[in-house]
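[job 4471] stage=fold_predict status=RUNNING
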Amino acid sequence: MITLRRLLPSSRRYLDPTGRYVARFATHWRRGVAAAIDWALCYVAFLLVSIPLGTVLGAMLGVHTFIGIGEAVITVGAVALPLMIVLALAKVRALAGSREDNRE
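[job 4471] inference complete, writing structure tokens
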């Protein structure tokens, strides 16, 4: 039969074999900082759970759709402008070449 004494930790302190480590309580400011961090993490978890996922996903989808359309417009403009310039220069050169051929 298991006795209660076996389940409870012993009252003896931890002894480091080298004798360099002594376990003790943390200072008050460290406990305060740890408590503040703990409460902040709990609050963030509460916010994540309490906001309906559909609201967040709907807003995120709308914003990213708007950003994607803007990127598409910029990309089409960045590709089309140099292409139009090259085609216009080729056309001008072809016309200039045909005029020189007609003069001869």
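[job 4471] summary: The mean pLDDT is 81.
[job 4471] exit 0
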